[in-house]
Design brief:
With 775 residues, the chain is α+β, with helices and mostly antiparallel strands. The protein is 39% helix and 11% strand. The radius of gyration is 37 Å and the shape is elongated.
Length: 775
């Protein structure tokens, strides 16, 4: 018994020795680490599985890739409105070269430059991706290696859009999947052949064989190491590495390729150094084979194409490597006719080849730009200055419906017979006087007469009543915004383009809806994805305003005193406005009387709006003025073009909307917004309108009276000063100077004193030394 007890005590004593004093959890830190590690591994595994699942999910919807897609060119094809190809940038000048005719030196240069592990990877190279990331950080790759393999680049060029918006995870996954397939289905030599024939090489050239002929006038097999290295390095940035335009950049790039080849052990360092010592211009040809689809056709559509490419670029497309199919709104018939009118001899006798034209034609019902001319007699220049979209020339009096009379009808309810004053005017806060084209005053006349005859003073007085803020807002509704605050002088001259003006006048044609002008209707990318484009119409003015402006502007061409009689087309329902922009006072004595810097005509039917600018690029150069007789050339261009357009469309007149009331004034048909017949208070004008003008309108109530100028004192003062103060040149061409002095409440009395009328009559008798023909 005692022996057993002793044994138990001995065991208990041993156990007590083994057990540490106090409670303790053994190996707690290790267990926590293992748990964290397990969670991390689980997350990584799940992430890999999810990534793999997403990769294969995206891969299933990848587009098909064929030998045809791999071997075809990546030029941008442009189609007209009827689906006919009008341009294939560089496509016809692409000379395909078979693998057997590709020098081994070029293959080695391309591989060394684009993908050193090309012969070892399977189309996608994880090692390359990590190496490229490290090299880009450390700068050890000579700037030559990116993350994509050469095979991936080929896939990208063959089936995918290059638009920035399409650079997504889905597309990257599909690109990698297709690269694996291409590497599996085709040999390395085939892949190289496709790549060398597909890349863009600048100047509308695709493929290195074509580039060899374009830059050197030889085939690839006749080029030396330095020349082949240059071509191999160009695809990364073909424009910047063009040896004829940027020789320094091209040499730097070529030398990097040679260093990469030496580093890849395909040439020796001595060979690289010898080639680097070769002049970059060695062997370059001075003449280049044209890359246009059809030189004659390309010339006709040059300005339109340039604007198409600008529109594509703004949407994020790459027109040089995108392989795009671009469908435009171009009416080739209208385009050819417009080109013939301004470049041929069968329509108009132009004063010289330096006399220029810019014109845009817009469909009023949707904003589609159907034709555009950016110049005439431009020689061999391609994609040069597009005068149809330039905004550095004054629109002159074509601004009057846009900034003066349109807002006056819209906001002040002016009837077409609104009395407006053609009396002496000095811009507020200045000594600058404003004159009409004939340097005479007609006293109080109707708004219709002022617009038809293009009188300047009534237009600016009307703008003064409307206020710059409301006029600017009206212009914004017509797609026109400006960096600087507009002034009264802009009422007879805005710096806008023919494209902007055609689109704005199109809103008059369609009843008041503005459509932003656009040329591209659809783009199909290499993966077959179609992107459609259109303009959403926005109400810019009431139907009443559009109709009343149109009705008045009909007289510009039909009235015996209209300023646009040279644009008249018998039997055609049309409306429009002229504009001529005179030289400033300090230059006026250097040109003949009546000479102008710019001459415009913008007109429209219910089917087309056509805006035409004419003038010289260097308007202050000796002899580069538009004579008084030549100011009608813009009208004649319009007339010939609109006659063609009218022959292929319906001829229908505008009908007054229900918000407009017809009345008779002095035996003539006039219109007013229903409920706003207006009041004629000027005694000098009552005999013109008859008794129907005695009806008052809420628009002319005592708390919101509409007037022409400021007070009688100011007007009388300007009349007195007109013979002694500084004379205003055609203010159409010089915005600024003259206080805007207006907000939306800048209105004064519609009545004018007899004293003012007498002063105006006296001033009318003044015989100016020269005519200031500002239309």
């Amino acid at each position: 018994m005692s022996s057993n007890n002793q044994t138990r005590q001995t065991r208990m004593s041993r156990n007590a020795e083994r057990t540490p004093s106090g409670p303790q959890k053994p190996h707690t830190g290790w267990r926590t680490f293992r748990r964290i590690l397990f969670v991390i591994v689980a997350i990584v595994v799940l992430g890999l599985l999810a990534g793999a699942g997403l990769f294969f999910f995206y891969a299933q919807s990848a587009p098909k890739i064929t030998a045809g897609a791999l071997s075809s060119d990546t030029s941008t094809r442009v189609y007209d409105a009827n689906g006919r190809v009008i341009s294939r940038l560089g496509a016809q000048n692409r000379n395909y070269v078979k693998n057997k005719n590709i020098p081994d030196t070029l293959k080695k240069a391309v591989v060394s430059t684009e993908d050193r592990r090309f012969y070892k990877n399977n189309g996608v190279d994880p090692i390359r991706i990590m190496g490229a990331a490290f090299a880009n950080v450390t700068g050890s790759s000579l700037g030559m290696q990116g993350g994509s393999t050469l095979t991936q680049q080929l896939v990208k060029l063959s089936v995918f859009s290059t638009a920035a918006s399409d650079r997504t995870l889905k597309r990257k996954a599909q690109e990698a999947w297709l690269a694996l397939k291409v590497d599996h289905d085709y040999s390395k030599n085939q892949i190289l052949e496709y790549y060398i024939n597909k890349v863009y090489m600048g100047n509308g050239v695709y493929g290195m064989q074509t580039a060899a002929q374009y830059y050197y006038g030889k085939t690839l097999k006749h080029l030396d190491l330095a020349q082949l290295a240059l071509l191999a390095g160009m695809p990364q940035s073909p424009t910047n590495y063009d040896p004829t335009t940027y020789p320094a950049l091209a040499k730097k790039r070529r030398d990097l390729v040679l260093e990469a080849m030496a580093k890849n052990n395909v040439i020796t360092s001595a060979q690289a150094q010898q080639a680097e010592a070769t002049s970059i211009s060695a062997g370059l040809t001075k003449t280049h084979k044209s890359t246009s689809t059809n030189p004659k056709t390309t010339k006709v559509i040059d300005a339109y194409l340039k604007q198409v490419y600008a529109e594509l670029k703004s949407k994020g497309y790459n027109t040089t490597t995108g392989g795009l199919k671009v469908y435009t709104n171009l009416d080739m018939g209208a385009q050819k006719r417009l080109y013939d009118i301004v470049n041929g001899t069968g329509y108009i006798s132009f004063p010289s080849d330096n006399f220029q034209v810019g014109s845009t034609i817009v469909n009023p019902n949707n904003g589609q730009v159907v034709a555009m001319i950016g110049g005439r007699k431009t020689g061999n220049v391609t994609f040069g200055l597009n005068r149809a979209v330039q905004t550095d020339r004054s629109s002159a009096s074509t601004a009057k419906p846009l900034m003066d009379y349109g807002p006056a009808i819209e906001h002040l309810y002016y009837p077409t017979y609104e009395p407006v004053k053609d009396t002496a005017f000095t811009y507020p806060g200045t000594d600058k006087n404003l004159y009409d084209w004939d340097r005479r005053y007609q006293g109080t006349i109707t708004m219709r007469k002022a617009l038809v005859e293009s009188r300047n003073i009534p237009a600016v007085r009307t703008l003064q009543n409307v206020g710059i803020k409301r006029a600017t807002a009206f212009l914004k509704g017509l797609g026109m915004t400006f960096d600087k605050t507009l002034t009264l002088q802009n009422g007879i001259g805005l710096y806008i383009s023919s494209e902007q003006e055609a689109a704005a006048y199109a809103a008059f044609a369609n009843g008041g809806t503005y459509y932003k002008p656009y040329l591209v209707s659809k783009v199909v990318t290499q993966d077959g994805k179609a992107h459609k484009y259109s303009a959403t119409g926005k109400r810019a003015m009431s139907a009443a305003t559009a109709f009343m402006l149109t009705d008045m502007m009909k007289g510009v061409m039909t009235n015996e005193n209209g300023s646009g009689r040279s644009a008249a087309i018998s039997g055609l329902y049309q409306a429009g406005k002229t504009g001529t922009d005179s030289y400033p006072d300090d230059y006026a004595d250097k040109v003949p009387d009546g000479a102008t810097m710019d001459s415009w005509f913008t007109g429209y039917t219910k089917n087309y709006a056509v805006s035409v600018w004419t003038g010289y690029d260097k308007q202050f150069q000796t002899g580069h003025y538009v004579s008084e007789a030549q100011t009608t050339i813009a009208q004649e261009i319009y007339k010939y073009e609109m006659s063609y357009l009218a022959s292929k469309s319906t001829n229908t007149d505008w009908t007054a909307p229900s918000t407009v009331t017809e009345t008779t004034q002095n035996g003539s048909k006039e219109y007013y917004i229903t409920g706003h017949a207006g009041t004629v208070a000027d005694t000098t004008a009552t005999s013109q309108y008859g008794s129907t003008n005695t009806t008052s309108s809420s628009a002319y109530s005592s708390n919101n009276q509409v007037t022409t100028n400021s007070n009688t004192t100011q007007t009388s003062s300007s009349t007195t000063e007109s013979s002694t103060s500084k004379e205003s040149s055609s203010t159409e061409q010089t915005p600024g100077g003259g206080n805007a002095g207006d907000d939306d409440d800048n209105t004064t009395s519609n009545s004018t004193s007899t004293t003012e009328s007498s002063s105006a009559t006296t001033t009318t008798q003044k015989s100016p030394d020269k005519s200031n023909d500002d239309d």
